[in-house]
Amino acid sequence: MKSSILRFIGSRRVILLWGVLCTAVFAAVFALYGIDLRVIWYPLVLCAAVTAGFFLRELHKERKKHRELELLREAENLDRDSLPEPESRTEEDYQEILLNMQEKLRREREYQAESRKDMEDYYAMWVHQIKAPIAVMNVLLQQEDTAANRELRGELFRVEQYADMALSYARLGSGTSDLVIQEYELDGIIRRAVRKYAGQFIRKKIRLVYEGTEVSVLTDEKWLSFIIEQLLSNAIKYTAEGSVTIRVDDRKRLTVTDTGIGIAPEDLPRIFEKGYTGYNGRLDKKSTGIGLYLCRMAAERLGHKLTVESEPGRGSSFTIDLDSYPYQAE
After folding, report:
1. How many Cβ atoms sit within 10 Å of the Cβ of residue 32?
2. Residue 299 burial (10 A CB sphere; 0-12, 13-18, 19+)
């Protein structure tokens, strides 16, 4: 209250200084003519009282306008009717500038949304088209079971995975929501992800440990599958021998643990950053630093918490807290 009054007085300081100056001029003139200065006290006090009344009225209007503008501060869309009535040509000009800027921002948002939609449609078409020759090459490579063909099938699998990642990147970055939040049996989601990477486990001779679960979770099946698949992909990539273990506890926390090379302590705080590859990424020249970034984005969109624990040389554990979500089932 006090600060608002001081700001109001400060904004009217020119008027106040003018009043004080006029009073001083009158007093000087009266003194030069030898007029008793006491005769000016009554009109001076009367003028001060009237001035104070005007100032209080203006202060009330100022505070009322401030409250109206505060309510509009969080508004997404403004129109001329929602703005306070302008009391001067300057205020009217400012409102006109504000509305013009909002209109430009609206058009820019529409353009950006249309551009992102076009990009997402292009990626979806590209992924669909690229999968056709990948499937044909897989069939051709399966006709002869040789070590070279098995390696080529593994690389083709990675190509398909990167194609799917490109589409996921476009969808997550578009800001659009295609979530279907329902209760799902977690075991089915995990087993589908495991089947997708079964060939990779066999090729690298890594043992998978998963005993099943009867837990149901409130989530989006597609995006949770994406997160699990990315965690399995990373576990396979950085595990030369040993095992990958999937477990779900009674608090609905899904953990993927590997016996791989682990993550350096200095890299742990940044592994979910976009494009950050860390020491392991520098060892693996094919690492893009996008997979875990997309996992974090997808987890945040689902309302799940994704955390990691790791020790160099002893493996890593990624945990998805599926009991944390801000949504309701559809």
Report:
1. 8
2. buried
d(CA 63, CA 151) in angstroms, rounded, equals 74
Render pLDDT for 81-134 as a digit per residue (tens, 0 to 9): 667 777 778 778 887 888 888 888 888 988 888 887 887 778 778 887 887 888
Residue 289 near residue 277 (C-beta atoms within 8 A): yes
Q: Which amino acid type is present at position 234? A: N
Helices then strands, each counted (H, E), the chain: 10, 7
DSSP characters over 125-166: HHHHHHHHHHHHHHHHHHTS--HHHHHHHHHHHHHHHHHHHH
Q: Does pTM surpass 0.85?
A: no
Please give the DSSP secondary-structure letter assigned to residue 111: H
- List for the chain the helix, strand, coil content (%; round to 5): 60, 10, 25
Angle between helices 221-237 and 291-302 (to 10 degrees): 150
Residue 175 · residue 212 · CB < 8 Å: no
